[in-house]
Amino acid sequence: VQEPSKKEEDGLGQVVEEVARLVKFFRVPSFGVVLILNILSTFQFWVIGEYLTKLWKLIPNFSDAQARHLEMARDSGLLVGLVLGGCISDCLARRLGPTGRVLHGQIGSCIAGLVMLVGLHAIAPEDESFAAYVALLGSFSIFSSLAYAGTHCVVLTQVIAIGNRISVLATAWGLYLAGGLA
């Protein structure tokens, strides 16, 4: 049994082909709108979470171990929020149809904003309030990541053809990370 001959391409040719395919997607108006909304709606929560984690690590009363606990609260909250967000969004989509995912994204973003607003005004930067900082950062991370997994990724995959989802979602995730790191 002979294998069919494979067309060998150099690495640069594959990269150029992939970039050309992604450029076609950026010309589709609905894809551009969904991608920009995805980045802009999660950007503020990424920045706030990163900023507060770094700021609270600089508070003199917090030890290095406490600073690590803050990071663990943020990361654990993000993980729980991503899993929970997908489950809640699927449930709302089954009950309410296409508007269920949109409602889910709006509710998650509103609750995350309220948690942060209340938390920043209610917690004093004292050593006794460390548990409150952990609870605030953990709950904020949960609610801010709800919309990403349950709404943004799902809507983005509905706009993209099946054969191209991996490369487009990888690009979207890369842009999301680049926006968060900026």
TrEMBL record:
Entry's transmembrane regions: 31-52, 105-124, 130-148
Entry keyword annotation includes Metal-binding: no
Record's keyword annotation contains Ribonucleoprotein: no
UniProt keyword list: Membrane, Transmembrane, Transmembrane helix
Domain of life where this protein originates: Eukaryota
UniProt cross-references to InterPro entries, sorted A to Z: MFS_trans_sf (IPR036259)
Name assigned to this protein: Major facilitator superfamily (MFS) profile domain-containing protein
Organism: Alexandrium catenella
Organism classification: Eukaryota, Sar, Alveolata, Dinophyceae, Gonyaulacales
